[in-house]
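<derive_structure_tokens>
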Amino acid sequence: MLLVGFADEWFTFLPAGVLEALREDVGLSYAQGGLVLAALSLGGAVGIVFQAAADYVSRRWLAALGALAYGGAMIAFGLSETFVMLFAAAFVWGAASDAFIHGCEVALVDLAGEDLPRVLGRVNAWSALGDLLAPLTLALAAGFGFGWRGVFLAGGGLMLGYGLWLASQRFPPPHKQAEDAEPRLALLALITDRRVLLMAVIMGLFALLDEPLLAFVIAYLDQVAGYGPGLAVILATGALVGGLLGHSLAGRLIPAATPKRALVPTALIATLSLPVMAFGPQAWLVVLGGLVFGFSGAVFYTALQSLVLTLRPGQAGSTGAVVSAIGLAGAGFPALVGLAADAWGLTAGLGLYVAVPAAMLALTLILTRSRG
């Protein structure tokens, strides 16, 4: 179960990493490319149901069937010839990933107990390693003339195998109180919890700073800064390396009893470092900004994730579902960035991303000053 994030991040980065090749091959605009990337998040509208179900049904079958659907969607993505086919495959992919990830994640909450921040740090470190492996995979595939379609077909096959492996494992069962509870009443209590709502908005903002951000950073470094496609991907991996380091050390940096204390400093550092990664005038500044941004973002996310998953004992999946549902409000953000890039250039589009951590910081200050 510790490898679930590794597999997901390895493959989820791939559409972002091949954005330019995808546009040229299928004939997409930047707005359409942004919509394809957004479809992975939009699939979460269905995935929310699977996420909440993790409190009530077999986590093993939820994770295993999600992984099988995930692999099938990747194969469909690799075979797609039109924007509609790409969008549909990405949508299914996003929905399946929620079942796959949260079936494992909720089980880990039960297994980890009070050691959850350290365990999440390990899971997220593996996730960051998958993030780092993804661009290397694309670089090797390009070097051997494998093509972007072959990468998705091979990755889909690996995910199908992972789904079969998960089906053979033993997972802890749902909590007894969750089995006896009325799901609608439990969800209503969550929706009216102000702490959940505030964390959901913050998590939604943080979720914007993921693969689509790197896709537009890579496009900017390639098309505007003039580094070329290969070097642009390499420079962007600074954020991935920083994320790997941050997740590896998160268990030591986050106070186990009060993870909330780690939020404001890391949000502030992320706010200051993202512009350096995006618009640094020299290559070394782009890499340095990416390292710092990735590191601070990793610690911030682990601390916030710990708060979300332990806020209401026995309802980790349902709490995560409410957080994900509210976070869907930002699912179309990559398309908005794409529209801005089509109209005013990649600099303007990427500038929208730079404003996100500042909003995240402001809400984090409110959260840390609240009780509970």
In short: The CA atoms of residues 125 and 248 lie 5 Å apart. The chain has one domain: 4-369. The mean pLDDT is 83.
